[in-house]
Amino acid sequence: MENYWQQAWIAWEWGKAILATLMLTGLGVTAVVGTAYAFFKFLGEKWISQKFAERLEAYKAEQTRELERLRHKINGVFDRTKRLHDKEFEVLPDIWAKIVDARDWAGSYMAVFKQYADVGSMNDSDLDEYLATTRFSEGQKRDIRNASNRQNAYVRYFERYRHADAMDKLREASVSLSKHGIFVVPEVREDMKALIDLIHSAIVEHQINDEHNVHPRMREAADKLKAEGEPLFRKIEHAVIDRLWESTTAEV
Question: Could you tell me the pTM of the whole model?
Answer without folding.
Answer: 0.70
